[in-house]
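ARCHIVE CARD
Drawer: 12
Card no.: 0347
Subject: one protein chain, sequence and derived structure
Cross-reference: see card 0346
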Amino acid sequence: MPRTAINKDEDEELGVLEDRTEALQLRSKRTERARKKQTKKATKTPNSPHGFMSKLPYELVMEILTLLRPSDLFRLQRTSRSLKAFIGQEETRIARAVIEYRYPCLLQCFRLPVLLSNVNPALHQYLQSKERQEIMDIHKKPYQHIKPPQPTEVCTCLTCMMRWFAVGIIVDFAHWQRNLDEGVPIPMVARGSNPQWHQSIIEAQATIVHKALYSPLWHGRLLEAHLDSTTRSIRRHVANKGNKRSRFRMTDDDVSSGTDAFLSRSGPPSLEFPHHRDNYYLLETFMPARSWSRDLSKWLYVPVTQHDNDIDFIVTWAEHRILAAQPAAENRTREVASV
């Protein structure tokens, strides 16, 4: 009998084979790590701090972040998306706590100008009138190294103008610290000229100040930069044995603390603004908007309400100008009628 016939008979006797094999489970270190990674990624909340900080209570995370410098917070934001989102969400609260802890004196000297959007819209016509802007030019011309603010964005009362220029000096003074440390002369701009390198500097400077207007963390970063400029300036002048002027008492512990506590002690006041970069060579502690009271033995600062007082003055000034213009208009009307 042929072989093929025998095999066919045997297949008929055995019947159809049923496949009962089970799928093998993949059990290895690699697959186990991948499974744990996927589980962790699925349970992770999008706005929680990264790593071990996600397991800490919210209050403790905030306490840790408020102990950092503003520059550290900017670096921390670049470490992960979750930290960037968390710090951005809580920026106002974190920045306020950092500034109150590290820079209470600097904050009172370098308040930000008020945005025009935060001023009563009915008063915008008085602030932006052509006649008043021409009067305010006298406060813009002396600052060749500071770009003036935009009247359509920032309040141009006298207080806000002085605040703008003071914050701008922070950025410009910090920019030239390396030249001052190394004894390299600061390039001067000839009167009536405006070279390209100077335009680039003041444009970049205005961009940074503009960020501080909308970001409390950037405001804190500027205060940190000015504290660094101040400590470097004091050290330079202390090293100059021929400089016998009075100065703030500053120790190594004061510098390492990263706070402006030593600036609350008695010291020389900032009576004049550095209207020119030539003033940077002898500028040691630039702390505007305050004066020392011998009777109270403490610094007295310009109050926050000074902006409101200036706005009231502008309204009064504008109303007087309108009333003074009415008789002149009536006289012209009579003259035309008589003709």
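Annotation on reverse: The chain is about 55% helix and 0% strand. Strands lie at 290-293, 298-301.
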